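Example 3.2
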Amino acid sequence: MFTIRSVLLGFLATALVASAVSLKLAAAQALPSDEAVRKELVPTGKLRVCVAVAPTPGAGNVAMDASGQPRGISADLGRELAKKLGVTVEWVQYPSSGAVTNAVTSGACDVASLAVNKQRKQKVDFGPPHIVLEATFLVRPGSTIQMLADVDKSGLRLASVEGTGAPRAAQRWLKNVKLTNVKNASELIELLRTGQADAITLSRESLMQIAAKEVPGSRVLADAFFRSHIAVAIPKNRPAALAYASAFVEEMKASGMVRRSLDSLGMQTSVVAPAGAKP
């Protein structure tokens, strides 16, 4: 014998089942198929991760260890993404983030971590950011420069790495000094170490690593002339790859993996981008 209670319970159970089915269908429609992801994200069967190599790891670049493996947040994310996809990772090395940008644009690699700017948005597609980025200056040992305003004075020798976001932003900010660009971070560090530059500019994370390990007595200025993000970058016109990589980055932030990686590299002051942040 049916009661009002049993009928209502039956309707409720049916509604819950229908709702669950609808959610599964919506999820299936929202997420790209495994076949589409693999075709776009690992077209060669390996995950080709572009990395900018420097003497020390930074927010976007990596350093190579004694065994020839990259160290840095970009490398840690690359390893985790390859593991999630069930494929091996292939490191594609370049001397600067500008060269990495060109490699992603041409499809020479499948994924990278890059500082976001307008020029790069025209060349690659960005997923959600994982690091809040600041660019500032590292001044040589014994320098009288104390704050950012002291840097923009005629006669000072300032330098950075060509093709990276920092020199473009710095030159827009500077009014009285022309920046000198070198080919890679090793040359840049040598300029500061030998006194051929009064200050150099890169991301705060990179500069703090250089100050601690490469140029004792140098100082990172407290203020910044440029703020942006480091985000996952994918070649354009790969929507399935972009959707998958974007969901992966959000998962890595939520799990604490990004924070742990930064801390392990000595970047405790680096800020993880909030969930849902846009590049």
